[in-house]
């Protein structure tokens, strides 16, 4: 019941309540290992979107509970792709900025302003 409630809360935008529901499921002793691992993966995904460093801990817990859970590796791959895109954007921004500053400086020097 908690997982269905958490799903609807997620759809309605109640993210803090979703985290509480997922933590209840993940720490439940009566839930199956598949359900607990899935809850930890979802917790990791939610915290990764909020820019906290907790997400990796949740993925590790899910992997300890149920190593065969494919969602763990899927989400870890997504996080790696997001980081790669971010660093690639920073790298390209630096190249473009350096090119612009170099060419702008060359124009000023050629005009005799400096």
Short description:
With 114 residues, this protein is mainly α. The chain contains 5 helices and no strands.
Task: Give structural notes.
The structure is a single chain. The chain contains five helices and no strands. With 114 residues, it is mainly α. The radius of gyration is 22 Å and the shape is elongated. It has helices at residues 2-12, 15-26, 33-49, 55-65, 70-111. It has a single domain (2-83), classed as Serine Threonine Protein Phosphatase 5, Tetratricopeptide repeat (Alpha Horseshoe). Helix 3 (33-49) runs antiparallel to helix 4 (55-65).
Task: Please give a handful of descriptors for the protein shown.
single chain, 114 residues, 5 helices, elongated
Main sheet: strands, sense, barrel: none
Structural class: mainly alpha
The CATH architecture category equals Alpha Horseshoe
Low-confidence runs of at least 5 consecutive residues: none
* Apparent shape: elongated
State the CATH class: Mainly Alpha
Any idea what the radius of gyration is? Answer: 22 Å
- Name the average pLDDT: 82
Number of strands: 0
């Amino acid at each position: 019941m908690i997982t269905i409630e958490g799903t609807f809360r997620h759809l309605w935008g109640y993210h803090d309540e979703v985290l509480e529901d997922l933590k209840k499921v993940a720490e439940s002793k009566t839930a199956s290992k598949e359900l607990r691992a899935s809850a930890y993966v979802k917790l990791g995904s939610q915290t990764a979107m909020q820019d906290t460093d907790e997400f990796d801990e949740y993925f590790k817990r899910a992997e300890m509970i149920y190593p065969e859970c494919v969602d763990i590796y899927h989400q870890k791959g997504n996080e790696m792709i997001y980081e790669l895109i971010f660093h690639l954007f920073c790298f390209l921004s630096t190249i473009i900025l350096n090119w612009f500053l170099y060419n702008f400086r060359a124009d000023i020097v050629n005009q005799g302003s400096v």
